């Protein structure tokens, strides 16, 4: 992980191509909640998937932030 391979279009070592997309969420809890609200309000995206169950505990505070908004 973290090594950029010549034939990869995306790598954990290079996040710039995914910045500003819903595929990559970086920042504080508030930053991520704001990003998800943007995708919901501007693009009608309201269903997001965590690809690894191990990420759920880290995402729970974001879900709590979004609850009811």
Could you characterize the architecture of this molecule?
By secondary structure, this protein is mainly α. The chain has 2 helices and no strands. Helix 1 (29-43) crosses helix 2 (56-66). The model has no long low-confidence stretch (mean pLDDT 79).
Brief rundown of the structure:
The chain has 69 residues and is an all-alpha fold. It has helices at residues 29-43, 56-66.
Give the topology, please.
Layout: H1 29-43, H2 56-66
Keywords:
69 residues, mainly alpha, 2 helices, globular
Q: Main beta sheet: strand number and arrangement?
A: none
Following the backbone from N to C, one meets helices and strands in this order, namely HH
Strands, count = 0
Q: Report the span from N to C terminus.
A: 35 Å
Tally of DSSP helical segments: 2
* Content-based structural category: mainly alpha
Radius of gyration from CA coordinates: 14 Å
Helix share bin: 25-40%
Please, what is the average pLDDT?
79
Enumerate the spans where pLDDT stays under 50 for 5 or more consecutive residues: none
Overall geometry = globular
Strand content: under 5%
């Amino acid at each position: 992980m973290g090594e950029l391979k010549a034939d990869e279009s995306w790598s954990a070592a290079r996040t710039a191509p995914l910045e500003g997309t819903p595929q990559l969420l970086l920042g504080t809890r508030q930053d991520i909640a704001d990003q998800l609200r943007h995708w919901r309000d501007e693009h009608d995206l309201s269903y997001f998937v965590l690809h690894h169950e191990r990420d759920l505990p880290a995402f729970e505070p974001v879900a709590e932030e979004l609850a009811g908004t």
